[in-house]
UniProtKB/TrEMBL annotation:
It is an enzyme of class 3 (hydrolase). The keyword Nucleus applies. One of its GO terms (cellular component) is nucleus. It is found in: Cytoplasm; Nucleus. It comes from Kluyveromyces dobzhanskii CBS 2104. Residues 18-346 form the Adenosine deaminase domain. Substrate binds at D293. HAMAP family: Adenine_deaminase. Its EC number is 3.5.4.2. Binds 1 zinc ion per subunit. The lineage of its organism: Eukaryota, Fungi, Dikarya, Ascomycota, Saccharomycotina. GO terms for molecular function: adenine deaminase activity; zinc ion binding. GO terms for biological process: adenine catabolic process; hypoxanthine salvage; nucleotide metabolic process; purine ribonucleoside monophosphate biosynthetic process. This is Adenine deaminase. Pfam families: A_deaminase.
Length: 355
């Protein structure tokens, strides 16, 4: 259903356009080609019904019925990650891939409870991911922030425990943000108020976000803002159902971290063209474009940009606006934002003939 052709000039422009990714689950970058070798390396037995090789697994990933169907595979995938080097290797593979896609700044999620529940320490997981982040800065000049997410399908007491055990990592600024993910609908944001308050009490600079408005309605978005103190929202596409909320997001510059390919693969929309992104642009609701779980959804960040171009055919000026708002909505400091904004200006002026 592509309406607009991604010419070589458009592709070059969108590749070079400086990008910030704010909605990327590191565990969601586990490609089948790494999953099977890690399972073998660590002696992890996969369920009998699990696909037997990378090709079969890719095929399975083409047919998710919904978020829960995907999550069932995602959590099985997590089981092959055991050692600090596994976490490092996983994240490093991601940074290597996106370093050639114009990615400049990444605020990445991870799910500590999907590992600590298997006896792997929070320190091992975090250290592996942190090492990859440091290397991404050194080798690719990609700046990063680490965001730990709470699994909302687990009991709140367990979520409080993982927050408490993360205290030193939050205090020291190794963990920069707190998020909330997993099955959305039966687990509304109000259940997690105490978790967010506790985490924030460890470090006032901790940034807060939450998945909302992917499966859940606009009230999930509103309650994440009002009750959890989130300053941005992951997904949030169903905000469009509430005109007052749309006005609030625009007035308060609350960014939505949208994930086009994910929304198609998890049947939130049938096609990328159904996403309310033009409404967001017209109403000045800031959003960034992200890949969510790219190994599962068939594309990394650039593919998401190209997919949107092919459906919406936005002009260079619109892409400039999107690039700028995704920098403004980032949690990096003012100096880094200035650097990134001037990189955007340089790329925009490099393509004078692009409409
Ligand atoms: N898209 C998504 N929604 C909720 N939880 C997730 N965990 C990993 N990806 C997720
Ligand atoms: Zn997500």
């Amino acid at each position: 259903m592509a309406k607009f052709e991604c010419t070589s000039e458009v592709t070059a422009f969108l590749t070079e356009l400086p990008k910030c990714e704010h909605h990327l689950h590191l565990e969601g970058t586990l490609e089948p080609e790494l999953l099977f070798p890690l399972a073998a390396r660590n002696g992890v037995e996969l369920p009998d019904t699990f696909p037997k090789n990378a090709d079969e697994l890719h095929e399975t990933y083409n047919n998710f019925a919904d978020l829960q169907d995907f999550l069932n595979y995602y959590y099985i995938g997590c089981n092959v990650l055991i050692k600090e080097d596994d976490f490092f290797d996983l994240a490093w593979e991601y940074f290597k891939k996106v370093s050639s896609q114009g990615l400049k700044h990444a605020e990445v999620f991870y799910d500590p409870q999907s590992h600590t529940s298997r006896g792997i320490s929070l320190k091992v997981v975090t250290r592996g991911f942190e090492r990859a982040c440091v290397k991404a800065q050194e080798e690719f000049n990609i700046s990063t922030k680490l965001i730990m997410c709470l699994l909302r399908h687990l009991p709140v007491e367990e979520c409080l425990e993982i927050v408490a055990s993360a205290k030193p990592l939050i205090e020291s600024g190794v963990i920069n943000g707190l998020g909330l993910d997993s099955a959305e609908r039966p687990f509304p944001p109000e259940l997690f108020v105490e978790c967010y308050e506790l985490a924030k009490s460890y470090n006032d600079a901790l940034q807060l976000t939450a998945h909302a408005g992917e499966e859940g309605g606009p009230d999930f978005v509103t309650n994440s803002l009002d009750l959890l103190g989130a300053t941005r929202i992951d997904h949030g596409v169903r905000s469009v159902e509430d005109p007052e909320l749309i006005k609030r997001l625009a007035d308060q510059k609350i960014m939505l971290t949208v994930c086009p390919l994910s929304n198609v693969k998890l049947q939130v929309v049938k096609d990328v063209s159904e996403l309310p992104l033009q409404e967001f642009l017209d109403n000045n609701v800031p959003f960034s474009i992200n890949s969510d779980d790219p190994a599962y959804f068939g594309g990394y960040i650039l593919q998401n940009y190209l997919e949107l171009y092919s459906r919406f055919g936005w002009s260079k000026a619109v892409w400039e606006k999107i690039a700028k708002q995704s920098i403004e909505g980032s949690w990096c400091d003012a100096k880094r934002k200035e650097e990134l904004l001037s990189e955007v200006a340089a790329v925009v002026s490099k393509y004078p003939n692009l409409a």
